[in-house]
Prior knowledge:
Layout: H1 21-30, H2 39-53, E1 58-60, H3 66-77, E2 81-89, E3 95-103, H4 105-113
Antiparallel strand pairs: 1-3, 2-3
Helix pairs in contact: 1-2, 1-4
Amino acid sequence: MQSQNPIPINVMTDTSDILTMTKLTKAIKNSVGNRGINHEEAKRMAEHMLNFFGYSDRIIDNVLEPEDRDVFYMMEDSGILTTEREETTLFDGREWRINYWLFRRDKVYELLNSKADDEEGTGEQITVYDDIPEDIWVRE
């Protein structure tokens, strides 16, 4: 028996919200704590994170090794990751805490739309002296 409403084969989907390694790499480079990080290092960090999260936005902390956790803390500082904790009561009455890492896709897309230092202009460094008038330095 055939279905009354077959699923269309050629359905167009919006792929603009799919997070790729290229997008995550750019977001890592644009994050405040990582400005000046080279492209290859940002790419390694992006790949490392995507290997853990895959298609999920949440993983349990227990799967991380100490070196992995260091990278995750760095990403937490930039806002790309955050943590969450769940408490449950075991059969014997003890409390058990489960710690999770949450992937903040909203922050990644926010960072994607920001400009990195090297994209903002001429590359000239701005100092606190730029706003001081030139005649302040003249002795009378």
